Amino acid sequence: MNVLPNSSNDTGFKSLNPKIKEKAKALKEEEAKVVKVRYIHHKDQKWGYLYKPYCHWEGQDIQLWKFLSGEEYEVPRGLVNEVNDPIYRGKKLSGLLDVNEKPIPSDEPGEITHEFVSAGF
Asked: Are 63 and 56 in contact (CB under 8 A)?
């Protein structure tokens, strides 16, 4: 992992409502916990990799990660949540075309390419 400095400063959630501020602090602590995971590249088990920058909160350094399929890593929980989030999978194509002859996505989520699974405690 390489680290780059972040140009924004950590304001400590000064501008947030006190109720939301406590929730944000708790979430930041939860996402900072380090977990042991195995990276799986579903489309290329042998040579697959993921190159991912990670910086979830203001003031944090930008972490540049490179994951190789089948290897185990200790990473922040927030990074695991981000990679495993189904919103990043995209949508399957319906097979239909729009008036400009571009494929129309369906409502079904796309295939999983990148995934972290627990590698123990």
From this structure: no
